[in-house]
Amino acid sequence: MISYSEANNIISEEFRNLSRNTKEVELLSSLNRILAEEVYSDINLPSFDNSAMDGYAIKFSEGKQKWKIIGEISAGNYTSFSLTDETAIRIMTGGKLPENCTTVVPVEDVKVEDTFVELTNSIKFKEGLNIRRKGDDIKDGQLALEKNTIITSKHISAAAACGKKKLKVFDKLNIAVLATGDELIDIDEKPVGDKIRGSNLYSLLASINEMNMHPVNLGFVSDDKLELESKIKSALDNDIDILITTGGVSVGKYDYVPEIFEKLGVSIKFRKVNIKPGKPMIFGTFKKENHPVFIIGLPGNPVSSFVGFHLFVKNNIYKRFGVDSQNNFNANLLEDIRKNDDKRHFMRGLFRYNKELNKYFVEKLASQSSGNIVTTSKANCLIVLEEDKKIIEKDESVECIKI
Question: pTM of the entire structure?
Answer without folding.
Answer: 0.89
